[in-house]
Each structure stands twice: as structure tokens, then as C-alpha cells.
Design brief:
The protein is α/β, with parallel strands linked by helices. It contains 15 helices and 13 strands. The strands form 3 sheets. Strands 1-2-3-4-5-7-6 form a 7-stranded mixed sheet, with helices on one face. The protein has a 3-stranded antiparallel sheet with strand order 8-9-10, with no helix packed on it. The chain has a 3-stranded antiparallel sheet with strand order 11-13-12.
């Protein structure tokens, strides 16, 4: 993907959307959903300059870049900061060399710490580290050691994601051929609860099922999704939301670029949320966040057994799931949604 072609495509889509929408005033900007750090220092600088042609944001806005450790050099980090990036989500995934090799990661464990140093030297103080847990039992990896090594780098935010094996992916093919045995549910639960206990003991707030933050360091951009704040989005597979309708672009890069070069809308499809859809989504996103749901008589009655089982608690007239409850998030959200529809 040549950098100049990609940025030209972004410029064209921005111009296309500007025909029917006023200039955007942004509170947050997130460069991610892929590997934007591959654009390098000059590429990210040009990308943000291109976005500024159709959008405005203040110095107080949160501007996040997803980055791979091996893309973070002193030069790139400095250019990113000069261009306006003030927060980086670093895809560390693990500090175990065998685990990194198994995940086909291109960085080494040492490069994670080096990347953090380069970012801090450049003046990017807000740092999130991403790790993956619940790897297959045959992959050598000490989960507690990974957490300790991440904490030693002093991030203000940590995101933890359980490994999932999806159909039609390399992992899915390995599983289907018998080359991969998925981690059992007991391993997932053990890793999840260990992280919860360890990180909370070190002063991190487990504020969303996959996210931990020190005081004042919650991810503002991601939090806006969970609050159903409208958001714009551009690029291949980008999803946007206007408060009632979701739409998304075609995913293949070549098709997206072909359409925008031809002056065509790259939107693949859209959905209008019904009141029932919106209610179900708000229930789900409310349960996945520590702020929880406003307690009503209906919710109190429907979740009494959750509280008895230790899956939920009531704090300041809000229902919050515990760590044990988050392990059952999908099922509990469905139960509560069905209870509200009866």
C-alpha cells in the first residue's frame, strides 16, 4: 500500500463527505483499525494535515495512534508528536519471544521497551499497552510476568484482549486442521481474574471489560463508543454512526481506493437502529463498563440472582458487573434485554 496512494484516497473520501456535511469539530481522533504506524513519521504527518483540511480539533483533543513497537523510532515518534499525536496505543501483545513468534509478530520483546522510551523522549506522555491473554496451553508464556513487565514501563492505560479464533482466519484454519487447540475456558477465566486482581492492586481502574486506566487516563475516544456518541470515520472498512444510523465502507483496500478515485461513495451498507436495537445496545455497553446501568425497579428485580452469585453489585443506584460478571457479559446482556422486552 503506497503511502501517497492511501493518503490521496483519504483526501478524496473527505472531499466526498464534505459535500453533504459541515466541517467536523473533533474532540477525539483515532488512527487505527489497522497498522497506521506503517505510514512512518512523514506519512502520519501528511495524513493529519490532510484531515485538517476538513476537520478541526483543539490542543485539548485526544489524538491516538495505534503503533507496532518496531515502527517506533526516535524520528517517527518526534514527527508524530509534532503532527499532533498525543496518545499512542502500543501493540505489545506479549513479552515472551516464543509467544511473539507464534503470533507472527514482527517485533522483539526488547523493542517494546525501546519504543516506550522513544515515545516518552518525544514528549508523548499518554501511553496504552495492549496485551493478549488466553493463548493455547502449548505456547510458552508466563501471563503474570507479561503483566509485570508491562507495568514496569509505567503506562497510564492497559488493554487486555482474550485470544479468539474466528472462522476463515489463519488461526481458524490451524484449528480446523488440528494444528491448534484453543485455550480452555478455565484458562481464559484464570488469566482474566489474575489481571483484574494484579492491576487493581497497582492502582489501575478496571473501567471496561478489556480496559484498565490510572486516574484520569480512561481512553476518551473508546469511551465515546460505549456512550453512543456519534462519530465520523473514513478509510477501508471504516464504521460511522450519526446517532441513529450506522454505515460502513467496503473493506478491501483496492475496492475502496477504486471507488474514491472514481468519485463514488465507498459505503458498503448501512443499518437504521430501531428503538429496540438502541435499547439492547445501551444495555450491552452499559454492562461492559464500570459505570454500569441506572438502577430501575425492573433491573433490580431481573438481576437479583446476579448479585447473589457475585456477578453484579449496586453502587450509587447503578448496577455494575463484577469481574466474574464480565466473564458472562454476553449471556447476562441477553438475559436483561429479554427481560426488558417482556
Amino acid at each position: 500500500m503506497p503511502v501517497t496512494d492511501y493518503i490521496d484516497g483519504i483526501r478524496r473520501e473527505l472531499a466526498l463527505r464534505a459535500r453533504t456535511a459541515p466541517p467536523m469539530e473533533l474532540d477525539t481522533l483515532y488512527l487505527g483499525g489497522g497498522t497506521p504506524s506503517r505510514l512512518g513519521g512523514e506519512g502520519i504527518s501528511e495524513l493529519l494535515s490532510t484531515i485538517r483540511e476538513h476537520a478541526r480539533w483543539s490542543d485539548a483533543a485526544e489524538v491516538t495512534l495505534e503503533a507496532n513497537p518496531d515502527d517506533v523510532s526516535p524520528g517517527n515518534a518526534g514527527r508524530w508528536r509534532d503532527a499532533g499525536v498525543n496518545r499512542v496505543s502500543l501493540g505489545a501483545q506479549s513479552f515472551s519471544p516464543p509467544a511473539l513468534a507464534w503470533m507472527r509478530r514482527t517485533h522483539s520483546a526488547n523493542q517494546i521497551g525501546e519504543a516506550v522510551s522513544h515515545l516518552r523522549d518525544a514528549g508523548i506522555a499518554q501511553l496504552s499497552i495492549d496485551l493478549i491473554f488466553a493463548l493455547p496451553e502449548n505456547v510458552p508464556r508466563d501471563w503474570e510476568e507479561d503483566l509485570e513487565r508491562a507495568l514496569a514501563l509505567r503506562p497510564d492505560h492497559i488493554s487486555l484482549y482474550g485470544l479468539t479464533v474466528e472462522p476463515h482466519t489463519p488461526l481458524g484454519h490451524w484449528r480446523d486442521r488440528g494444528e491448534l487447540t484453543e485455550s480452555p475456558d478455565t484458562r481464559y477465566e484464570r488469566d482474566f481474574l489474575l489481571a483484574h486482581a494484579l492491576l487493581e492492586a497497582r492502582g489501575f481502574e478496571h473501567y471496561e471489560v478489556s480496559n484498565y486506566a490510572l486516574s484520569g487516563a480512561r481512553a476518551r475516544h473508546n469511551s465515546s463508543y460505549w456512550r453512543h456518541v456519534p462519530c465520523a470515520a473514513i478509510g477501508p472498512a471504516a464504521h460511522r454512526f450519526d446517532g441513529a444510523r450506522r454505515s460502513w465502507n467496503v473493506a478491501p483496500y483496492a475496492e475502496w481506493l477504486r471507488r474514491v478515485r472514481a468519485g463514488l461513495d465507498p459505503t458498503e451498507d448501512e443499518e437504521l437502529l430501531t428503538p429496540a436495537d438502541s435499547a439492547a445496545e445501551r444495555t450491552y455497553t452499559g454492562l461492559r463498563c464500570i459505570d454500569g446501568l441506572v438502577l430501575t425497579d425492573e433491573i433490580r428485580a431481573s438481576t437479583a440472582r446476579w448479585r447473589d452469585a457475585g456477578w453484579a453489585r449496586i453502587v450509587n443506584d447503578r448496577l455494575q458487573l463484577t469481574a466474574l460478571g464480565w466473564l458472562r457479559l454476553d449471556a447476562l446482556a441477553v438475559d436483561l434485554t429479554h427481560a426488558g422486552s417482556r
